[in-house]
Amino acid sequence: MSVGERIKTARVMVGMSQRQLAEMAGVSAMAISKYEHDQDVPGSAVLLRLGRALRVKVEYFFRPFNVRLSAPAYRRRQSLPDQQRESIVARVQEWVERYIEIEGLLNLEERADLPPSYPVRSFEDAEEAARSLREYWKIGEDPIEGLLDLLEDRGIKVGLVDGPEAFDALTLWANETLPIIAIKRGMTGDRQRFCLAHELGHLVMEIDDGIDDKGVEKLAHRFAAAFLVPAPAVKAELGERRQRLDLYELHLLKHKYGLSMQAWIFRAKDQDILSEQASGRLFREFSRKGWRKVEPGDQLQAEEPQRFKRLVVRALTEDMISDSRASEILGTPLAQFWQEEAERHGGLPLAARH
């Protein structure tokens, strides 16, 4: 990727127009256009101003890694304007490049542990795909304590990105072989887990071409619920047939399996444990009390990707990279990184270098 392409990517990342960037960097809009089309190369002073305006280090413009991304699949793409979609993809690309850079420095060749795609044409197929993947990964039918850790351990790169209300998550492939899931930062834990499982469904299911977009999303929903709570576990927890479900019961199950109370109602209905009428009454109660977006009770905490950070700290501790290089790879000043991590972990970590 040329310097000009990097300038454009960084500009798209922050959602600036060429004119806005030109004003902040003290050059003309024509100059920005020429830079981005590789018709001119900015000098070092201009690059410094461009970096400050775009909130990237100058090293970013000369990064040797170039990641090729497939067309992204969005959960809620239809409601995202083009500029927002392009900004999200640009941010994902920049993060993936940093991820692959630190793996390269540590001589790691990460490969995804995914089975061949499961053909899916029905809800029953989606259930079977979820069951088969659990079997392939040898994780049984128990609750998955750390879903994000599980995905990272299987070679799926997961990143948190800031995004508008209409954005939930996207799935794509880097360099044709590396599966990527980008998910919006700030979700509740149950919503985050469902989105992760939903995107996992897109990675492992080969859905019949004759099914429309809405049908595809419904099948991914079914896969997500079945992956988080397999059918035998649903019946073991709820029984074969119920007339009603208690809200506190649903709340406890939410914390055990990481599946929302409302998704548990759907799960009970899908497994013919709860009737359409009984589930409808519960959903109306959730709507009436304003619980559809934020459910009652203490919220499930969202998970945080850890592997990328561990790799950077490992390289820093082993003197494989400098503090400034670590900051560039992390995408944040090193002192800020230590401070944020210490706030999350009760005073740890102490800086890797004393």
Question: What secondary-structure arrangement, pairings included, does this model have?
Answer:
Blueprint: H1 3-14, H2 18-25, H3 29-36, H4 44-54, E1 73-74, H5 82-105, E2 118-120, H6 123-137, H7 147-153, E3 157-161, E4 169-174, E5 178-184, H8 189-204, E6 205-207, H9 213-228, H10 231-238, H11 247-257, H12 261-270, H13 276-288, H14 307-317, H15 323-330, H16 334-344
Helix pairs in contact: 1-3, 1-5, 2-3, 5-14, 6-9, 8-9, 11-12, 12-13, 14-15
Task: Compute the CA-based radius of gyration.
Answer: 23 Å
Strand content: 5-15%
- Kindly, what is the distance between the CA atoms of the first and last residues, rounded to a whole number of angstroms? 37 Å
Uncertain stretches: none
How many helices does DSSP assign?
Answer: 16
Q: Percent of residues in helical segments?
A: 40-55%
* Overall average residue pLDDT: 93
Q: Give the helix/strand class.
A: alpha/beta
Q: What is the subunit organization of this protein? A: single chain
How many distinct beta strands? 6
Q: Largest sheet, described in full?
A: 4 strands, mixed
